[in-house]
Amino acid sequence: MRISPWMRQHVAALRALLVLTVITGIVYPLAVFAVAQLPGLRDRADGSLIGAGGTLVGSELIGQSFTDADGNALVQYFQSRPSAAGGGYDPLSTGASNLGPESIVDRPGGPSLLTTVCTRSKEIGEREGVDGSRPFCTKSGVGAVLSVIGPRGADGEVTAPVRVVSVNETCPAQPFLRSYQGVRVECAEPGADYSHGRIVPVIGDTPRDPRVPADAVTASGSGLDPHISPEYAAIQVPRIAKARGVTEDRVREVVAAHTSGRALGFLGEPTVEVVRLNLELDRRYPLPG
What we know:
Blueprint: H1 5-36, H2 42-45, E1 49-52, E2 55-59, H3 113-128, E3 145-149, E4 163-170, E5 179-180, E6 183-188, E7 198-201, E8 227-228, H4 230-244, H5 248-257, E9 259-260, E10 271-273, H6 274-284
Parallel strand pairs: 4-6
Antiparallel strand pairs: 1-2, 3-4, 3-7, 5-6, 8-10, 9-10
């Protein structure tokens, strides 16, 4: 029987569909699964899971919070990097806050990135007993930003300020500056818009190299980063040692054991794995009493 060209084309297409379905839908996934079960690869393929005492406690690839029910840091644990993924480290809501360097003025919908960083730095400084001040931040922990209102020159600069408002300090707060270019600085009225003024961030009289490192006050792009910098770990050591009743040198030894250097000796920065570090502290130095 003679088969029409139309039929031959559809039979060929059906054969190709079946062959590609078997290869890409069955053979290839099984091959990848088999390779992933080889020694040295299986743990990574299964999610690099971490267990303690027969209980699954996390993954090497995903950070987690070490806080109480009210969100307060548990003093006996190293704190992780902040997270903007859902409620924190949620793999189903991975992502950043989408706030960039130009986010310096607080809005009704939430604080600016600058104020978020300033607030975190102040809180961490108080918790760890170090100087939490940083450039462009007020002592109260918000962004040090002014709206300078007045006539402008050709370059956009205000030539003769007639009003200056600290836009992130809502009344009745006392502004971080008394005056700016001879004009008294006012607090911001709730809900008022000062965007018509010249927005001026003020660096302030603070250390150019803050004691609280950047990774302690900013979230990673994914919001799932399980590591912190050795610098952030270092300022937490005294608190951990006091809470666990051991010397700071012993805590530093555990930190050093869980610190990884640069990949291939030159890629990236040294990191400290927080989850395994805290598990090791619980094993070696459980809380007194």
